[in-house]
């Protein structure tokens, strides 16, 4: 895991492949874990599986989406760590536990907060088919894995945001050049015109620029 984080600091990486490797590492490193997954959820109730080592993490996230409750959501929004020793004895999240027992063989779950802000949260989750699998050692290892996963996630997101900013800058530059040539104005005036178009249409500046460039050079 430390090698993966170091590699991320030194080079760009594909988000999907990084998340897949993170979940594989978690499933292997946490004592007793058979499956692992990363859950991403938003305040409006949408839940998705960013990565998973098998079908059950995905199915359990679908159950959380269905009922708007579950250990992964609680770990992210309310607590840093959630441990379920046995789904059959669990009294929290009754609708989730009922469907999880009916639709999967999973009995033990641990969920660790990765990040949470005003709009989105993430959790690293590990699962086992036997009850009472995750002891204090497993919790400690899970916390270590979640810390490294959160760091790696932030590095990947930072790289994505940087590349997106570069792409936006390039497209805005192209649009400015087109406006300067068409209306015979300078760069400052061209940018001010783009800003006014953005404000009047309530559209992000980069989107306005992209529309102008695409209208000038339509795709075949």
Automatic annotation (TrEMBL):
- Extract the InterPro entries matched here: ANTAR, CheY-like_superfamily, GAF, GAF-like_dom_sf, GAF_ANTAR, WH-like_DNA-bd_sf
Which residues belong to any copy of the ANTAR domain? 152-213
Which residues belong to the signal peptide in this entry?
Answer: none
- Transferase is among the record's keywords: yes
Q: Which Pfam families match?
A: ANTAR, GAF_2
Q: Which UniProt keywords apply?
A: Kinase, Transcription, Transcription regulation, Transferase
Is rRNA processing one of the keywords UniProt gives this record? Answer: no
The name of this protein is: Transcriptional regulator
**Which organism encodes this protein?**
Mycobacterium branderi
């Amino acid at each position: 895991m430390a090698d993966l984080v170091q590699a991320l600091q030194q080079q760009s990486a594909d988000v999907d492949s990084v998340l897949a490797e993170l979940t594989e590492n978690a499933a292997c490193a946490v004592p007793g874990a058979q499956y692992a997954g990363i859950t991403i959820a938003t305040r409006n109730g949408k839940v998705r599986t960013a990565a998973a080592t098998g079908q059950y993490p995905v199915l359990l996230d679908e159950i959380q989406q269905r009922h708007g409750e579950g250990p992964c959501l609680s770990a992210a929004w309310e607590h840093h760590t959630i441990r379920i020793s046995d789904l059959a004895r669990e009294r929290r999240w009754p609708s989730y536990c009922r469907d999880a027992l009916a639709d999967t063989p999973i009995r033990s779950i641990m969920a660790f907060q990765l990040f949470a802000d005003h709009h989105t949260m993430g959790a690293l989750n590990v699962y086992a088919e036997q009850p009472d699998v995750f002891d204090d050692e497993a919790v400690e290892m899970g916390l270590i894995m979640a810390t490294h996963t959160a760091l790696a996630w932030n590095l990947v997101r930072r790289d994505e945001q940087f590349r997106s900013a570069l792409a936006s800058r390039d497209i805005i530059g192209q649009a400015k050049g087109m406006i300067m040539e068409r209306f015979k104005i300078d760069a400052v005036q061209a940018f001010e015109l783009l800003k006014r178009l953005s404000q009047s249409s309530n559209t992000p500046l980069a989107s306005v620029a992209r529309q102008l460039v695409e209208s000038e050079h339509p795709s075949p």
